[in-house]
Each structure stands twice: as structure tokens, then as C-alpha cells.
Design brief:
alpha/beta, Udp-n-acetylmuramoylalanyl-d-glutamate--2,6- Diaminopimelate Ligase, Chain: A, domain 1, 36% helix, 2 domains, 5-stranded mixed β-sheet, 6-stranded mixed β-sheet, elongated, 13 strands
Length: 253
């Protein structure tokens, strides 16, 4: 029978609480399609390949982490952006997108799901004192070398990772933030952790890691954020008794 789109959006908003975040894009319903949702597709980014896959599966709605209408981007619907929007509108498919709220959810979010995959025990937020921290810090069950931990991350995520090792310092306490969060390295070091894990690396990140004496791992923006959208969409689908499929559009970045 499905669920009303309005009810699905209301449930997603209640779960992720986008009103608590100052974000770079609108969170929630970005493109409105048919009023009833029976089949939900989720993915990391609302790329054309994900949209085409959703159309092929006769989806009614798509749930993603990276949607559209980012701050500072050209607002006109032309070219690639126009094609994406036309695909949604012509096929009457809704697009729901949640950026920072999806990173931060304490159990279903990107950071919580990555921690579960890697066996990390969450001890707190990356921003101490924040009621809605983006990123976490915690511990491994046992102490291991930086090289062993990096190999574990690579095996779990199924891709090579970049490790900048801070000497022979063993890894027990870890901070992490999925996606492009290399700018939080100094905050992680201030917490006294042994290693900081994120998705991306910048030129200055390596120098900072060396000078701060902290291991640094860049494991891929896409790879570290593959789990939140599917977890939230799966939770909503189970609640409302609708079909759900997570579609992973591979991205080496």
C-alpha cells in the first residue's frame, strides 16, 4: 500500500532533526514526486547513474547524503543539473537528501555506522560540548600498530587507504569523521587520540599530522559515507512496510 510522501518526510525529519544544523544545503525533501511511496532507493550521491538505476527499479523516492542546491552553486537548471532534475520530475520521483544531520545521527548516521563496521567503541563527539557533534572519538578493543589498523580499515571498506604514520606510536584511541573532514585534524589531536580517520586528505594535512604527532588515515569520501543513507532509509522502509534497496554507485574519491 505504501506510505504518504509527507509522512515519510516527516518521519525522516523527526529522526535526523535537520533544524539543529547549520548546513551547506537544504536538508529534507528537495524534489517532490508522487504523493505515495511504495519503493525507496538509497545511495550516497544523487548522481545521474543513481537516478537512472532508481528509474529502472520503478522507485517512487530516492534517499541520499549528497543531494542538490549547495550553497554558492549556480542556481540555474541547465546542463548536467538540468538533466538530473528532469529525470526526477519526468519520472515523478521524489528526492530526499540529508547532509550533516545524516553524518551526526548517533546510531544510524555515517559516523556511527562506520564505527560499527570498524569495531570502534564510541566514547564521545569530535566537538566536545556540542549537542549534535559531527564526528566521534572512541577506542579500539585492543591496541595495534598504525599499519595494522590501516590494513583493517582497507579490508573493511574494500579499498586502499592513505596512511601517514606518526612513528611507532600504537593505536588505541581513534577519532573519525566521514567524508571531507580533514580540517578537523587539529581538533582530533587536541583530544589526545592516537589516530584520526576521515575520507579525504589535503596537502597541508600531512604536514599537520607530522607536526602534531598523530597518525592520519584518509580512507575515501565515498567509502566512508556508504553506510548512513542505507541505514536510515532501511529503518524508514521497515517502519512503513515499503520496499528499499541501497544502490552503491562506485566512486574512488
Amino acid at each position: 500500500m505504501g506510505v504518504a510522501l509527507s509522512e515519510l518526510v516527516a518521519a525522516a525529519n523527526a529522526l535526523l532533526e535537520p533544524e539543529n544544523f547549520q548546513d551547506y544545503c537544504p536538508n529534507g525533501l528537495q524534489v517532490e514526486g508522487k504523493p505515495q511511496v511504495k519503493r525507496l532507493v538509497s545511495g550516497v550521491t544523487a548522481s545521474q547513474r543513481l537516478l537512472d538505476a532508481a528509474v529502472a527499479r520503478d522507485a517512487d523516492a530516492i534517499f541520499v547524503h549528497h543531494g542538490y542546491f549547495w550553497r554558492g552553486e549556480e542556481p540555474v537548471l541547465t546542463g548536467m543539473k538540468g538533466r538530473r532534475i528532469r529525470t526526477l520530475i519526468q519520472n515523478d520521483i521524489s528526492l530526499l537528501a540529508y547532509h550533516l544531520p545524516l553524518d551526526a545521527h548517533p546510531t544510524l548516521g555515517n559516523n556511527a555506522q562506520l564505527a560499527a563496521k570498524l569495531g570502534l567503541q564510541v566514547r564521545g563527539g569530535l566537538q566536545p560540548g556540542s549537542a549534535h557533534p559531527v564526528g566521534n572519538h572512541g577506542e579500539l578493543p585492543g591496541q595495534q600498530s598504525a599499519q595494522a589498523f590501516a590494513a583493517h580499515v582497507a579490508a573493511v571498506l574494500g579499498r586502499d587507504v592513505l596512511l601517514e604514520a606518526a612513528g611507532e606510536r600504537p593505536v588505541k584511541r581513534v577519532a573519525w569523521c566521514t567524508g571531507g573532514a580533514q580540517g578537523y585534524l587539529a581538533q582530533a589531536a587536541a583530544l589526545g587520540v592516537d589516530c584520526y580517520l576521515t575520507g579525504e586528505v589535503s596537502e597541508q594535512t600531512i604536514h599537520e599530522a607530522r607536526e602534531l604527532g598523530i597518525h592520519f588515515i584518509a580512507a575515501g569520501h565515498h567509502a566512508t559515507e556508504r553506510y548512513g543513507a542505507g541505514a536510515v532509509a532501511g529503518h524508514l522502509a521497515e517502519r512503513f512496510g515499503i520496499e528499499h534497496e541501497f544502490i552503491d554507485i562506485d566512486n574512488p574519491a
